[in-house]
Amino acid sequence: MDLSAINPVLLIASLMVAATPLLLAAIGELVVEKSGVLNLGVEGMMIVGAIAGFATAVESGSPLLGFFAAAFAGAALSVLFAILTQFAQANQVASGLSLTLFGLGLSALMGQSYVGVKPPRMGDIHIPVLSDLPVVGPILFGHDIILYFGIALTAAVWWVLKYSRMGLVLRAVGENHEAAHALGYKVIRIRILAILFGGACAGLGGAYISLIRVPQWTEGMTAGIGWIALALVVFASWKPWRALLGAYLFGGVTVVQLNLQAAGVAIPVEYLAMSPYLITIIVLVILSADKSSAPASLGRNFHASR
Amino acid sequence: MIRLEKRPQPSRAWSLATPLVAVLATMVFGGLLFAALGKPPVEAIRTIFWEPLFGEFSFYYRPQLLVKGAPLVLIAIGLSLGFRAGIWNIGAEGQYIMGAICGAGAGLAFYPLEAFYIFPIMVIAGALGGWAWAMIPAILKTRFGTNEILVSLMLVYVAEQFLASVSLGLLKNPEGFGFPGSRNLQAYDSAHNAELIAGTGMHWGVVAALIAVIFAYVLLNRHMTGYHIRLTGEAPRAAKFAGVNPARLVLFCLGMSGALAGLAGMFEVSGPSGQISIDFNVGYGFTAIIVAFLGRLHPVGILLAGGLMALTYIGGDIAQSNLQLPAAAIQVFQGMLLFFLLAFDLLTNFRIAIGKPEVA
What we know:
The complex is a heterodimer.
Chain A: H1 8-34, H2 42-60, H3 63-87, H4 92-110, H5 136-140, H6 145-163, H7 165-175, H8 177-182, H9 187-213, H10 225-235, H11 240-263, H12 269-287
Helix pairs in contact in A: 1-6, 1-9, 1-10, 1-11, 2-3, 2-4, 2-9, 2-10, 3-4, 3-9, 6-7, 6-11, 10-11, 10-12, 11-12
Chain B: E1 2-6, H1 12-36, H2 41-49, H3 51-54, H4 58-84, H5 92-109, H6 118-144, H7 148-168, H8 204-222, H9 224-234, H10 236-241, H11 246-270, H12 284-294, H13 299-323, H14 327-344, H15 346-349, E2 350-354
């Protein structure tokens, strides 16, 4: 066992990388849930985004194009969920589950010829003086563009939800869809747009795993990150900045756990690998006492019958 | 103009017809998918649905139907109880794994003793293992209000890691030349869940599945607890006024589904699969969710749906070897089925009306 081999600077830098897929997926789902829809298909949309992004990046040679494809694929899959829940009035829990089951199968099918392929590398940005600073440089200024996009997206979602008219309408729909409908807002249309946004974010998060974090394609590679993202939204009490905090916390657990595995700690590998899931449960238990911040119409379908 | 009008009461006819319509739609779209993959669509569908039942080698495949169907029905029956009451246990895969580990562990603890009581002990251990694993989300839900969907699902990943750990450590076969995996229970007579009638695929798991179907039917139609489950699902407010204890219901539904999933895992590990190994679980816990919905959360429906799903597993295997149809295509096919089912369910609760709405 050699803990001195763990470099704290690299640890924090890789923590941010590990947290980004979670953050992207969680921010997307946060917006969906703010509109009053519970989409349990995050895992499915992520994995489809992961393979769609991976395949596009490999075929075109451009990781950035891969990310666009991933966002599109995630949104495309979420259309199915939107049809089921917003038009066919299907149960949201069941529809979300079906999205995940379908997505896992679909991604395995799409990814058959991509196992073992190496994707083109996404370059890290390099800011002349800042990136060369010791300690601060690699942590803050030496990452890929998507990681910064994730943080910017968090800020944007926070601002839109809090200060813009669009955010107010979205929240109104999520809090009380009957009242929003009575005021003349198109509940179904707003919810569909939110679902599409959530799908695109989940797709991006998935592609981040397959293109940057791992980078490789294996079946079922999201390994529950989509579900942890769902837990993260609860952890964050539907607040964007707390989602960022939570994502870094879980990213930290994952990275520390991997580093301990590599350092050969006396704890068996399997028990270390369990830890992110166990910690998710513990955090959920601690935070589940307070449900007051959940959108009031969460998980309830709307049908304008009157 | 085409509109949706809510039916005053769900249509019984459509409720029964939707699974059939969904299966037909899945066949059509699945055929299109297979065609897109460059496989003959009609041939593929025929291979999946016809070959196992009436094909040349059906004498071999028909018993497999029971072997694959039993765990699906057993798990789905348990899940359906909770789903009816709005209690979402989606971690059956984890409970299945824990049941298998506990069942096999109990059996292996006696090795090489041969005695009649070993198998019953394993059955009880398997059920308890699954039950205990499901009690974690149940107790967290009743004590702290934690979301049971997320907790039960997280525990699947924990169980998978635990499975890897025991197959490399605690339960590893000491005579296995260092390979991961436990002793083969098929070679240990007292612990072997053998076929009851040779060549039929009928083993104790199938018997348990049939008992579970009857039990669930009686429970839902003739028993107070079943009535409470149905009431909570259909009219939560009325259930509250009627004095239904929600905590007890959560503990009952999750515990029951956990125990049944554990039993399924135990019968699988001591019979068809034979040993605990890293990749012992194959996703029955998740497919069972589809089975439960396809069977309309009704015990008899689940029995039929379990058979149909088993058919797609076996037919999928045949299509894989005969037509080189990728295994993942079957997974997509099964996922599609749930999609269509949920979509066509619209017709149960709504009717499609053409023309302008009448002024009331």
